[in-house]
Amino acid sequence: MSSIERLECVRARRLAHARLDGDVLAPEDAALLDTHLAGCEPCRVLGVELAEIQRELRGIPVPGLDAAVLERVWGSTSRAGTAARGSVARRSWRVAAAAAGLTLALVGLPWIIGERREREAVRDAEMRRATVEARLVLAVAGSALRRAERAVTEDVLVRGIGAALDRTPIRWSGAARSRPTRGDNGA
Amino acid sequence: MDPRTFEQAVVEHKDRVHGYAAMMLRDRVEAQDVAQEALVRLWRHREEVDGSLAGVWLLRTTRNLCIDRLRRRVVRSEVEDGPEVLERHDGGAPDPERLAGSSETGRAVLRALAGLSEADRTVVVLREVQGLPYEEIAGTLGVPLGTLKARLHRARERLRAELVRTGVAP
């Protein structure tokens, strides 16, 4: 292998590694590499083998951390960690409570005010209606009372006068001066 | 870093941390211990760690813990069996190897990976196995991007050479 060939091999290997790294080669570098690999058996074999090794390495399953070990980690940091986690939780609750309060204030208060206003409006209308009805009832009652009063008065007057007339014999002549007695109707 | 960020960092990075430890140590119990230790250390150092860099901090800590464990293994091996190469120590049945299934090539690649130096293995595991972005790996290792790529290229070729040496051509 001449020094020029070795220089090309060194450069080609560097480019082969860059390709394995995922680098995007410049067009002239890619052409140089492909041309070299086509004519250089050792570099071509090397490239194939490195790619095969990389594929195997990437297929190695890496075990994750056991849940029990993670629990031990939380346990080791529990005194401050739990407090911190608790404070985080408390802070979250406080934020949630504040958010709920704000929502209630923003949404609920107008609703409550509206409800109250609506209730007050209904109450006013009912009061007005009830007042009118009460006035009507009073008017009717007053009218009835007045009618009754008149009827009673008339009755009393009529009966009283009638009874008085019954009890009092009317003598149209001046001769009779004696006080009339019950049952004595002058017959 | 506040407690909530810590919790998010743990949930986000726990599998990555454990996976890296499992690949480096090849021992399920030790990997769990290291992952737990790294996560608890993050809690202890939460005041000093920027939440946005928690992943990098965790991986760096996990790597240091793995290196400590590997060194202790060497000391034990030297006492019990005589000198051993740090990276050649097999810490028991590795989970990834068991999980690799029946692929002979897959098992061979795992064995060859175990034969690499800690630095090479770290680069290959983080990039090729776990698929981390280059920038994150560079941050974890504290090296420039170019250096990282050069190290990865070298590690790939060493892995291939290891496979050839053991007679398993991909």
Report on the structure:
The complex is a heterodimer of chains A (187) and B (170). Chain A has 187 residues and is an all-alpha fold. Chain A folds into two domains: 61 residues, no CATH class; 70 residues. Chain A is 80% helix and 0% strand. Chain A contains five helices and no strands. In chain A, α1 packs across α2 and α2 packs across α3. The longest helix of chain A has 90 residues. The C terminus of chain A is likely disordered. By secondary structure, chain B is an all-alpha fold. Chain B has one domain. In chain B, α1 runs parallel beside α3, α5 crosses α8 and α7 crosses α8. Chain B is globular and about 50 Å long.
- Oligomeric state of the chains? heterodimer
**What number of domains of chain B?**
1
Radius of gyration of chain A, rounded?
A: 60 Å
User: Count the strands of chain B?
Assistant: 0
Unreliable spans of chain B? 82-94
**First and last CA, distance of chain A:** 180 Å
**Fraction in beta strands of chain B:** under 5%
Helix content of chain A: over 70%
Give the C-alpha Rg of chain B.
16 Å
Number of beta strands of chain A: 0
Counted by DSSP, the helix tally of chain A is: 5
Q: How many helix segments of chain B?
A: 8
Helix content of chain B: over 70%
List keywords for this structure.
heterodimer; A: 187 residues; mainly alpha; 2 domains; B: 170 residues; 8 helices; 74% helix
Summarize the structure.
The complex is a heterodimer of chains A (187) and B (170). Chain A has 187 residues and is mostly helical.
SSE layout and pairings?
The complex is a heterodimer of chains A (187) and B (170).
Chain A: H1 3-20, H2 27-39, H3 41-58, H4 67-76, H5 78-167
Helix pairs in contact in A: 1-2, 1-3, 2-3, 4-5
Chain B: H1 3-25, H2 28-44, H3 54-81, H4 95-99, H5 104-114, H6 118-129, H7 134-141, H8 145-165
